[in-house]
Amino acid sequence: MERAPISAVPRGDGFRGVRRLTLADFRSYSALDLAISAPVVVLTGDNGAGKTNVIEALSLLTPGRGLRRADLSEFSRKMSSGGFAVSVELAAPLGEIQLGTGVERQDNAPPLRKYRIDREPVGSIRAFCDHLRVVWLTPSMDGLFTGSPGERRRFLDRLVLSVDADHGARVSAFERALRGRNRLLESGQSQSERSWLDAIEREIAELGVAVAAARVETVSLLSALIAATREGAAAFPWAEIALRGEVETLVAERPALEAEDLYREMLRDHRARDSAAGRALIGPQASDLCVRHGPKNIEAAQASTGEQKALLVGLVLAQAHLVERTSGLPPLVLLDEIAAHFDPTRRMALYDQFGSLGGQVWLTGADPATFTGLEMRAQMLRVTPGQIDPLA
Predict the structure, then answer these.
(1) DSSP of 170-202, one letter per residue?
(2) Model pTM above 0.90
(3) Which of 252, 275, 360, 390 could, after both became Cys, cross-link 185 (CB 3.0–4.6 A)?
(4) What residues have CB less than 8 Å from 90, skipping those under 6 apart?
């Protein structure tokens, strides 16, 4: 017998976003059937109750490993068969649609993730991008500006992927080609191996320039949007963003074919150095996203912790606006444990931003008091282990 969905607070039918979420054996949920009827959804409850698990499930509806970057084996509920399922009924610009993903475990076979649109199988999650884009901000991103370049590259690639659905596949292919080159460099420099190196470096150059070009274009579009909408006294300061990297510079200054030729020459000329290092030292895999606090004209890493958080929120909000402008799809915005970091004035400034985003916003937080002011605009839900109910 199908479980009836948890009743939702009536808010009308004018919003675009998730109208129903169902989970099976996902993280802490054996089964969940949640009806949604508001453009803003608030999940509140004790730490460890399962709030982040809900928005992580939603993050799996876009290419990648979700907001925790977890392996497939981590999604399945403990004591289950090892499979899981996530499904949403979505009010989208192209009409009502159902998206689903999950794993069905089979004996003596590795887990294989599957994807369905309106219950019909599709080859990859790339097809979901025609109906849904997802943007998120989590506490693990708080150290973005002071962390490693690798963290900022992942943030950048997630940003690019939200506006260019093919970017993830290009990055994956580029990384595979780099690993192949590393193995060849380790094995020696015979004539046949040099021929293989020539071929794989040609592939790396083509893919690397494509990856760099997508990053350059997205940063340029986002910078233009920020410049056109920035306010000096805004609650969330505007950011100046730029890319640092040899290939990104080539792409910005030269035609694509010329950039590929020059990058390929770099790879060939630095084989000995890369062999000694055990990796390629030049390329998109070594670039960095540089961010400055615009109103203060300082490096983001030099700003206070509170200023960095506000700057990051402003950057993610700008990303959400860019997604709608470039794809025509109002994004699903997932904000994990964000409200507690701000004073009441800045919290209300954040909530006032939601109406302009166009898409549905999901927030999590332990203290219901931090969502004061949203009660009449949001569906307020209380999360307890394995269960979600309306907040009394």
Answers:
(1) HHHHHHHHHHHHHHHHHH---HHHHHHHHHHHH
(2) yes
(3) 275
(4) 17, 18, 19, 96, 97, 98, 99, 131, 132
